Amino acid sequence: MTTVSAPARPLLILIIEDNLDTADGLSRFLRLGCGYTVITATDGLKGLQAAIADHPDVVVCDLGLPKRNGLLVGEEILNVLDPKPLLIAITGYGDNATRELARTAGFHHFLVKPADPFEVEAIIQSHFAPVAEPVDDEEPK
Fold first, then answer.
1. 17-35: buried (b, 16+ CB within 10 Å) or exposed (e) per residue?
2. Residue 140 covered by a domain
3. Among 81, 84, 126, which Cα is nearest to 107's?
4. CATH number (domain holding residue 62)
5. Count of the separate structural domains present in the chain
6. pLDDT (tens place) for every residue of the chain, 141 residues total
7. Rg for the chain, CA atoms, rounded
8. In this structure, what DSSP letter does residue 38 have?
9. Residue 139 domain-assigned?
10. pTM, two decimal places
11. Where in the sequence is the domain holding 18, given as residue range(s)?
């Protein structure tokens, strides 16, 4: 996975999750604990609309969503947005078939519920880590 330099503003994270407690807990952690700007959507259709309207840097998406499943939402977000956000799937389905479907849909990471918020943070930080400048070993002339 390629690292991308973070924008000058706080990262904008979109959480698409129909379980309100899960969405609220992760949102609070990422907002208060990490300093990110966070918006939430409670179904796939609202999530897609929020992504198009707000152009998030990261989308954390449940796969089993009402109104439009998370696999379709992820594909559509990647087809519509440029630059493409980091897509993280979080689901209760941890089988290999679901993992492969998520990968095919374009998700960069796949986590099984209950996802550790520190792992979500680590994925985001790793993706947006500053790119090291090459060291110039030549002495000035």
1. bbeeebbeebbebbeeebe
2. no
3. 84
4. 3.40.50.2300
5. 1
6. 455 555 567 899 999 999 999 999 999 999 999 999 999 999 999 999 999 999 999 999 999 999 999 999 999 999 999 999 999 999 999 999 999 999 999 999 999 999 999 999 999 999 998 655 555 555 555
7. 16
8. E
9. no
10. 0.87
11. 12-127
